[in-house]
Amino acid sequence: RRLSGLQTSLVMALDTPEDRAELLRRCIETCASEGSDGVLRFLCFRGLHQGSSELRPQVWKLLLGCLPVNKPAQWRSMEGEMRSLYAKYKSEVLVVSNDLKFEVKVEHR
Description:
- The chain is mainly alpha-helical.
- It has helices spanning 2-12, 17-34, 38-44, 56-63, 75-93; strands spanning 94-96, 102-104.
- Helix 1 (2-12) packs antiparallel against helix 2 (17-34).
- The mean pLDDT is 80.
């Protein structure tokens, strides 16, 4: 029911970049409440339009399964955990030398 309304909005709201970005925002909200990313995949199939650049990272994380579509309340905390894990791995693998060059730590076994 809500998805069909969103699909109707899709046809009518592609005039301006602002309209496209608003449609994408509503699509993310609808997908979160419905627990399905089918409409989001359909909307993004040919790429995100200009005006949607601030939503691009969130859309990618949803489409790649990094964030659960049906748990939007947990997205911020999960992103924080992923950032911390990335920083930890980066510090374990990369070292900045005195002459400001990156070096990769290699463990010999």
